[in-house]
Amino acid sequence: MKRISRRIVLLGSAAAATASLVPTAVTRVLAQGTSGDPIVIGHQCELTGWDSATGFWRDKAATGLVDWLNANGGIAGRPVKLVTVDTKSDVDTGVNQLRHLLIQEKVDFVIGAEISSIALASNTIANENRTLYMTMSSSEATTGKGAAVPYQFRMTTNSAATAAGAAQKYVESIGKRWATFFADIKWGQSERDWWQKGVAAAGGEVGRAIALPVDAPDLLPFIAQIDRSADGIFIPVLNALQAIQLLRSSGYDQQVVLAGLSFSLFDYRELGAMGDGVFGIETAPVALKDSASGEMAEIYKALGIDDEGIHTASGKAAGTSMIMGIAQSLGFVKANVEASGWKVKDDTAALIRHAETVETYARGPLFPLGNVIVRPQDHQAFMDIYLLKIASGTVGKYAVAPKESTIYPAEVDLTKG
Amino acid sequence: MSFGAFRALNDVSLDVGHGEIRAIIGPNGAGKTTFVNIVSGIFKPTSGRVTLEGRDITTLSPQRRARLGLARTFQITSLFKGMTVSEHLQLAVRDADADGETRRELLEQMGLATFADREVDTLSHGDQRILEMAMAMVLKPKFLLLDEPTAGMSIAETDRMIRLIIERLRGRIGVIIIEHDMNVVTQTSDKVTVLAAGAVAASGLPQDVLRDPHVKEIYLGSAANH
Amino acid sequence: MRDRVGIVTALGVLTVLCAIAPLVGEFWSGVLARCVSWMFLAISFSLAYSYANIPSVAQATVFGAGAYAAVWATSLVGGNMILIMTAGAAAGALIALVFGALLLKMSHSGAAIGTIISAVTFSMLGNAAVAYTGGTDGLPMPAQAFHLLGMPFAVGPNIGMLLLGSAVLAALLVAFWLFSGTRTWRVVRAVQQNAMRAQVLGYNAAGYRLAVFAVSGCVAGLGGALYALISRHVAIEVVSLSMSLKSILWAAVGGVTSIYGGPIGVLAVQLASELLLRWTVRVDLIIGLMLIAVALWMPRGVMGLRRPRSSQQSQ
């Protein structure tokens, strides 16, 4: 149970300052073009099925950013080839598709699925195949005891980290008394528990948590049980859009906080006037003005997203947390391939050993919103968390929870194995 | 016996002795098949008792009643697709399969021996009805319920069935026979009970009952209604 | 009464699968191994539907019970694969007995609805009982030194598991084939065709139906255990209604009235899905159209294509 100490973070920041020179140099060299065999990255993505709303953004991000990489020197001067497969949001298909990537496509690296069951079933297989698996699951269990494996890293956030970082801010600004309305599945239960811990640590309290059974046809009877005297309501449910609409139409005018990364599940504009007073916990804001990042502007441009965060081709508001997860995963692969001298798949073990020594990834083209620290013990990344608020039909930055506030104890130490 | 608010049978009491063949007649909807279903255990009566040789079998399941020696046939031929005549008799004897000779004899006597290995779907309607009878008789039951045994049969097939009933059942076991064909009733039955609207309208010797003006009226009334 | 063509076809299919496994490579061997575990599920549906007269939409729940039992058993008894498979089969039979006892009190359509309710209820329970099932995340198969009859055995989606699964399934099918010539099986068929008629012949129709349903549960549970050993991870999805619907589709394509059709149905649907996935994300749509075509032009599935009144027609 090791935490990243303040000293390590400070050291990491110093190292990052030095490392930040590298991407600039690399970019300059690589701009001259790519050569050699392509580095093949497999993408195990939810293109269809119940999680396809978030899969849409991961697919767009992976495709667009690989194109961007190839236009900007590739990875270590080599072109990057992306092979995307559809999990159909289903474990068996997801695992089969991963095996297809590993065995038939012989990919060098994999960006994994977002659905935790697929991710958990897959990381063991990738580990056996000695292929680096960049999980996109936001279930903290994926890097926890019994599930963490050496060949897996997570460059996005998770339930434990978002709750730890966001709870304090929201308790301070919204109030101490909270109600939770959660999906009665592993993800919802995990969000509920971490939120409760975070609120308690911030001096607040969570009253009775209301469970929403999976496949419940009608949310109203469950919503009616929510404590009306609570200052705020935390809702880790999959059908957040419907839940918010019912909350508002049932007379609940409290501030509502959606669970981490919920804004990738639906377009916030669908809430209309009911969206006012709804907060989110994401790894990136939506409008460019809220990030004030040239790198983010470059990514938006590469993906066809306008300054307000609207994807031009589809007209949808960008699922920025998904985009950030993909960008940082590609950034991780690029940084470590180049720094470890990785050439072929057999070098991946050495790449991992190297990666475990890199504590900070400096702000750069694929880390557009600032430094990201990676905990070597469980291969979990920590980044600033953006607390977003919908007001007057627009989602904007409300606050930022610094990455240090999102750190929670690691359950494993992969560096010892 | 009631189905919801509808009372299908009301105060119907029948005592059929050993060796007696009792015909139950009556217009459609009189409750004849309901009566057979109650006796065979398919329906549970809302009140009343069913006894077999003095033993109360009211609460017993159909299979328990069958094992105590109560056999029945169905109004609609109820044979098993894809099985042969011989296999039907094997089913009917349950675990008493050792008595293969009895089965062969029975098939001979019933005129089914040449069809023993044929699937029942290929038999004529009359032979299928005879096979139903054979299945009911093969275990030498103590009591037999025949629900319209000649339904759908030709005149020749009906005569064959009448002969079977007279030769193989009369005086041997108790039989209740539900019938519409008065020729069958008069030739086979010792007594006749008439059911109308779920109640006993008349009972007695066949010649007396069938001459009863009240019974005629029941039938004519029924015919007029149809 | 024994379906010679059926057993020969099914064993032929399994033999071909095992024979081609070394040629098609690691990936396809894994795909086929998983297909073999699903064949048990398809067969269990056929048994429940065609011989226990229970149109069960809860077979995946029973299959899942076997899979979870295998994971729990591995934690308790280690890597003894015979014990693990036995645990799966026993769990499946037990759940089916409980379901069956309830379902037999319902009408035919009532039983179908009852199985849907059972499937949804168990899915919800599984989601809520995270400590035991891992919920939506699922449970990994504990890392153990697995062994079969004293020999070390590598579990996972591999040729070894394909061979094992096929051998167990072949043994099961042969046992069924032998049993289908017995008098007891004749009674099962009689009960299935006309329970009331069988009752007045002295047979306990409900007892026979319950026994057949328990056997179908045992088959599904055994398949679930094999699935757990192949996948090494069991998620609540496995017990979901959509998994049960898949089993119905497999059985329908193979021919729901013949248990020998299940293996063919699984292969036809799953291999078509797997191949189509390489070309399009509209796989379910295409499979759906394929199934409509089967329903229209092959209502009795692949096994129904044989001469309708041959001596091998039915078990």
TrEMBL record, chain A:
Its BP terms in the Gene Ontology are: amino acid transport
* Pfam families per the UniProt record, alphabetical: Peripla_BP_6 (PF13458)
Stretch forming the signal peptide: 1-19
Q: Where do transmembrane segments lie in this chain?
A: none
Family annotation (InterPro entries): BCAA_transport, Leu-bd, Peripla_BP_I, TAT_signal
Domain (Leucine-binding protein): residue spans on this chain = 38-392
- What's in the keyword line of the UniProt record? Amino-acid transport, Signal, Transport
Highest taxon of source: Bacteria
Q: Which family does it belong to?
A: Belongs to the leucine-binding protein family.
Protein name, UniProt field: ABC transporter substrate-binding protein
- The protein's organism comes out as Aquamicrobium defluvii
TrEMBL record, chain B:
> InterPro entries this protein is in?
AAA+_ATPase, ABC_AA/LPS_Transport, ABC_transporter-like_ATP-bd, BCA_ABC_TP_C, P-loop_NTPase
Annotated ABC transporter domain ranges read 1-222
User: What Gene3D superfamilies does this protein map onto?
Assistant: P-loop containing nucleotide triphosphate hydrolases
Quote the protein name from its UniProt record.
Amino acid/amide ABC transporter ATP-binding protein 1 (HAAT family)
Q: Which organism is it from?
A: Aquamicrobium defluvii
Coiled-coil ranges from the UniProt annotation: none
PANTHER family on file:
CONSERVED COMPONENT OF ABC TRANSPORTER FOR NATURAL AMINO ACIDS-RELATED, HIGH-AFFINITY BRANCHED-CHAIN AMINO ACID TRANSPORT ATP-BINDING PROTEIN
**A GO term, aspect molecular function:** ATP binding
Q: Cite the entry's keywords alphabetically.
A: ATP-binding, Nucleotide-binding, Transport
Q: Name one GO cellular component term.
A: plasma membrane
UniProtKB/TrEMBL annotation, chain C:
> Per the record's keyword annotation, is Membrane included, yes or no?
yes
UniProt-listed InterPro entries = ABC_transp_permease (IPR001851), LivM-like (IPR043428)
Regarding the membrane, this protein is recorded as:
Multi-pass membrane protein
Quote one Gene Ontology molecular function term.
branched-chain amino acid transmembrane transporter activity
Alphabetized, the UniProt keywords read: Cell membrane, Membrane, Transmembrane, Transmembrane helix
Q: State where the protein is found.
A: Cell membrane
Major localization class: membrane
Which cellular component appears as one GO term in the record?
plasma membrane
Q: Which residues cross the membrane?
A: 7-25, 31-50, 57-75, 81-104, 111-132, 159-179, 206-228, 248-269, 281-298
Pfam families membership: BPD_transp_2 (PF02653)
The record's section on PANTHER family has:
ABC TRANSPORTER ATP-BINDING PROTEIN (PTHR30482:SF17), HIGH-AFFINITY BRANCHED-CHAIN AMINO ACID TRANSPORT SYSTEM PERMEASE (PTHR30482)
Q: What is this protein called?
A: Branched-chain amino acid transport system permease protein
